[in-house]
Write a structure and sequence with these properties.
Blueprint: E1 7-11, H1 19-29, E2 33-38, H2 44-53, E3 61-63, H3 69-83, E4 88-91, H4 110-137, E5 141-147, H5 159-179, E6 184-191, H6 197-200, H7 205-215, H8 224-235, E7 246-249
Parallel strand pairs: 1-2, 1-4, 2-3, 4-5, 5-6, 6-7
Helix pairs in contact: 1-8, 3-4, 4-5
Bound molecules: nicotinamide-adenine-dinucleotide (NAD).
Nicotinamide-adenine-dinucleotide binds at residues 12-14, 18-20, 39, 64-67, 92-95, 119, 146-148, 191, 193-194, 196-199.
Length: 258
Amino acid sequence: MLLQGKTGLIFGVANKRSIAWAIAQALAGAGARLAFTYQGERIESGVRELAASLGGDGSLVLPCDVTKDDDLDTVFGEVDRQFDGLDILIHSVAFAAKEDLEGRFVETGRSNFLLAMDISAYSLTAMVRRAEPLMVKRRGGSVVTMTYLGGERAVPNYNVMGVAKAALDASVRYLAAELGTANIRVNAISAGPLRTLAARAISGFTVMEEHYEKRAPLRRNVDASEVGQTALFLCSPMATGITGEIVHVDAGYHAMGF
Ligand code: NAD
């Protein structure tokens, strides 16, 4: 029970395929008490059911659109009221318009560019700013966000999301640099392709999966539970020396040059 007595707040569960859900299962399995947010009434009941299936109280499930400061204020205020501080923050949220996940990156319009950056990159900073005082109450904390190799290299069709991931990766380093003195660690997991709602929006996603299977050192794709276990590691006492890091959970694909 690596996380016995710890509290966590998870952004990004949409359904049982969500990476955030795999992370939630790993953290809850290690004894953490969790709160969840969901975006939009359409998925509320599904997220509530999933949260309840973890046992415990599983009751803190709050609406949050990460583009809305008021929503974020309410979530962190409520979490503080119920948990009296916070140990773990999971940021597993991203969005880009479907038309920008195919074709030419150069065609990306200004408002879609800003929307992708707002939801997929800025939201981490907006969350961490609000988490900081709660984590200070616990004398430290661990933040984990989800990124992808498309922020480090040009990946076909990933386009504006790759630019947002590059901003997210840089945010991880700046946040880690600033919050280290408060013993708050900030890391990212760069996952290989996983069949989720968000991934299905990327044109040619199945081609990407097949390519990983052929080229990755482990000659396979990863499973969401492997991402969950890595998040658990990063949030646990086993990783107290790690911050500002991007851990690739991609069967080794990132290591290949060709
Ligand atoms: P998902 O669709 O299950 O999760 C995306 C989440 O983002 C959803 O819960 C959705 O509600 C949320 N979201 C979108 N806009 C929001 C907003 N305005 N406010 C609040 N929430 C909002 O898909 P996923 O693949 O689990 O994605 C989670 C993270 O993992 C994303 O950052 C994604 O880029 C990253 N990632 C995914 C893969 C993959 O292959 N699936 C690989 C690497 C990284």
